[in-house]
Design a protein that fits this description.
Elements: E1 4-9, H1 15-24, E2 28-31, H2 32-38, H3 45-54, H4 67-74, H5 78-102, E3 111-114, E4 130-134, H6 137-148, H7 152-160, H8 165-170, E5 174-177, H9 182-202, E6 218-221
Parallel strand pairs: 1-3, 1-4, 2-3, 4-5, 5-6
């Protein structure tokens, strides 16, 4: 069986760019956000369950899920967010596992599972190791405001609604710090890739860090 590693990070940290660089190295990736979109496509049981719970106002004119409308409903309401997660999380987990198993037949040396909330729910413990992509809060703010057209206060609220990056780093096996230089970021990915291959060769990925997963953590600055 191919080893499966988690890839996570904070919002607007460059996680998607890091994932692209891993793909260029021949690593297959299961994107949890894409899985989440796919399990709520028109005609799926997932979308029917969401509409049953939240009403047809979460649909756009074409009948597809309007993720922004749904997000505005659940973002500041823990009860509604929990109801949404109760619908989507089992579907995402099942579809994610199906895709991971399908990739076992690929030529990829290992598989990455890319998701934003691997640490928050403890899911990272299910993987052979964890890569965390981090950056500064100032850079997160700048990218969020540019990418999403968000105001500073809104962008800051979104950043601080997530678990602090420093907490994610504590359980990481590999940390990639994104300073905005794409060449250095690519090199950091290359370094982590080589480290993962070496750990697989040694057979030391599962439970190698006794007394805490980050005991032997490697950092890649970019």
């Amino acid at each position: 069986m191919k080893k499966v590693f988690g890839l996570t990070g904070g919002i607007a940290c460059g996680k998607s760019t890091v994932a692209r660089f891993f793909r260029e190295l021949g690593v297959e990736i299961v994107d949890a956000d894409q899985v989440a979109r796919d399990v709520a496509l028109p005609g799926t049981p997932g979308l029917r369950a969401i509409v049953e719970e939240f009403g047809e106002e979460v649909l756009d004119e074409s009948g597809a899920l309007d993720r922004k409308k749904l997000g505005s409903i659940v973002f500041n309401d823990e009860t509604k967010r929990a109801k949404l997660e109760a619908i989507t999380h089992p579907l995402i987990a099942a579809e994610g596992m199906r895709r991971i198993m399908a990739l076992q037949a690929s030529e990829s040396p290992y598989i990455l599972y890319e998701a934003a909330l691997l640490v928050e729910g403890g899911t990272y413990r299910n993987f052979a190791g964890l890569i965390v992509v981090t950056t500064t809060e100032d850079r997160q703010l700048k990218l969020l405001m540019e990418r999403d057209g968000a105001g500073r206060d809104d962008a800051l609220a979104r950043i601080r609604s997530q678990l602090a990056l420093s907490e994610k780093e504590k359980v990481a096996d590999w940390v990639i710090r994104n300073t905005g230089d794409l060449n250095l970021l690519r090199q950091s990915v290359n370094d982590v890739h080589r480290s993962i291959l070496a750990s697989i060769e040694r057979g030391t990925t599962d439970g190698e860090n006794e007394g805490g997963r980050n005991a032997g953590r490697r950092c890649a600055e970019s």
